[in-house]
Amino acid sequence: MKLIRFGEIGKEKPGVQLENGTRLDVSAFGRDYNEDFFGTDGLEQLKKWLAQNESSCPKVGDSVRLGAPLVRPSKIVCVGLNYAKHAAESGMAVPKEPVLFFKATSAIVGPNDDVIIPKGSEKTDWEVELAVVIGKKASYVSEENALDHVAGYVLHNDYSERAFQIEREGQWVKGKSCDTFAPVGPFIATKDEIKDPNNLNLWLKLNGEKVQDSSTSDFIFNVQEVVSYISQFMTLLPGDIISTGTPFGVGLGFNPPKYLKAGDVVELGIEGLGTSKQTAKAYSGK
């Protein structure tokens, strides 16, 4: 299944996207895509409900805004420098174990919402990433069992303000958590839809020019390793997002570096997970 949420900001409703691209409103199912849904067999229950009720579900028009395809989760855990070429372009060593950082969940927006360049920012950058959605509580999970704890996968643009992230004191979280810095979607593809998450093409375009073009087969630490590793340090709850890192081609890596300015258009996609598009806007204080 492909899970979507649609409607005005703050008033999103749950839906599904069918194989033919048709979007259906499944509000009548009675549950939104939150921790309880993922953690109590909601996917299986929704599948059974749809088999009986699909024909009576209202269609969602193509012009209707898509929100993030899940309710704000307990956390977003990100993996840094998880592609060797990206580590090199960042001027950092290839890590011996996964580099972890948090991204504030208040940064989550819909896949095609505007990205707001933060107040005082001069170095807002892009990062196409495969994100994993947890489906079952995970604590001290082995690599062999890691995928049993995954509900599905989703496209994520891990926007980053490099001066806040690298040039200011302390942890990376400051450069990762600005409002609108986590567009997620268009949909969550359930695990059965993605045969091998460690072999997916992913790309990103800036104003029509492809600047990132790689594959998750270049991961330093694959999905199973990352889920298992994180679960050694914290409990992953249903609905939690793990963002698995970005490949070569971010603005920081250009010579001279390239950063977003108002009016820039960023498009990105991952094989099997659709595409998203954000237009950069200047912070206006509203």
From TrEMBL:
PANTHER family: FUMARYLACETOACETATE HYDROLASE DOMAIN-CONTAINING PROTEIN 2A (PTHR42796:SF4), FUMARYLACETOACETATE HYDROLASE DOMAIN-CONTAINING PROTEIN 2A-RELATED (PTHR42796). Pfam families: FAA_hydrolase. The keyword DNA damage does not apply. Residues 75-279 form the Fumarylacetoacetase-like C-terminal domain. Belongs to the FAH family. GO terms for molecular function: hydrolase activity. InterPro entries: FAH, Fumarylacetoacetase-like_C, Fumarylacetoacetase_C_sf. This is Fumarylacetoacetate hydrolase family protein. It comes from the Bacteria. Keywords: Hydrolase, Metal-binding. The keyword Hydrolase applies.
